[in-house]
Amino acid sequence: MSYKRTTIYDIAKELNTTASTVSRALNNDTSIALNTRELIQKTAERLDYRQNRIAASLRSGRTKVIGVIIPSAEINFFGSVVHGIEHIARREGYNVLLFQSNEQTSYEKEGIEALLQLRVDGILASVAKETTSLAHFAAIKKRNIPLILFDRASDELGVPSVVIDDFKGAYIATEHLIQQGYQRIAHIAGQQHIKIFNDRLRGYVHALHANGLPLDDDLIQYGKISIESGRACAQQLLQIANPPDAIFAVEDFTALGAMQAIKEMGLGEPWRIGLVGFANEAFSAYISPGLSTIVQQTVKMGEESAQLFMNIVADKQKMYVPEKVILEPELIIRDSSIRK
Q: What is the mean pLDDT of residues 38-59?
């Protein structure tokens, strides 16, 4: 037996009214009396009515869907940002469609193309580590579709963005280690074509200079954002002739790898190397020792990103005069950085 889909005409017939009145009531049009709206909405529910979103989007020019592209669903940071985006999106009657780039440019391009074909009302994205050309993001802007970047943003695109003050976060992380009495502080850096990682390197360098410590190129290792890279970079640092007494890692997964290397090299019992990460990943408080790190206000980052989109919906001109929201980083001090 085939299933007959309930239409607004069925509801109108049931209530002896017009399809136009039903449509407006289902869209909560306040020109329809409240008691009439409630009756129509209850009848629609009783008759198992499902709105044809495609038809509705063709009429209104909007799908009420926001596309979100994140580099990795495995990283708690991005999941938390998405949580913030969804909070605002749902409040404003939007659904969120999530796409994962797996840090690859090719997947990122596929995600953008898929979201554009689905006619999303806007795209919120964080750029993949592999991406060096932003032409596929520029194509979104050329089509006059709102694009908001979060965390890994780029000023050259000229679009709204929400970021943490990565320079300041790195500065306070490094200065905390200096205040603990560490003198040879190393940095495991990320890929420098990504602005946030370059900002963290600069923050580290400035903190050393501001506190009268020399910059030693031997104390900087360039790696990737992974446990394996963190371990390998820390092993390199701890084997030089004059090794560091502390490490500031570009991100918590990198710091976790560095922690493993420190323990493997017999420097973990008692804990002898200061260590600070960045991002406050979910595991940071539960490993031993607890990892000192920088909080990036992830939920707020998501909320602010979604709000920038809502601002553009309300006033299209805001898309052409892009707003940049810079959030304040916060240091969480745990046992990994406290000098005994």
A: 74
Residue 322: asked if its preceding bond is cis (omega within 30°), the reply is no
All structural domains of the chain with their residue ranges? 8-51, 64-163+298-326, 166-296+331-337
Q: What is the CA radius of gyration of the chain?
A: 25
Question: Rounded mean pLDDT of 192-209?
Answer: 96
- Tell me, yes or no, if the pTM score tops 0.85: no
Identical fold for domains 64-163+298-326 and 166-296+331-337, yes or no, is yes
User: Tell me, which fold does domain 8-51 have in CATH?
Assistant: 434 Repressor (Amino-terminal Domain) (1.10.260)
Question: Which tens digit of pLDDT belongs to each residue from 130-163?
Answer: 999 999 999 998 999 999 999 999 888 999 999 9
pLDDT the model gives residue 1: 41
**Spatial distance between the Cα atoms of 69 and 85, rounded to a whole number of angstroms:** 12
Choice between 340 and 119, residue whose per-residue pLDDT is larger: 119
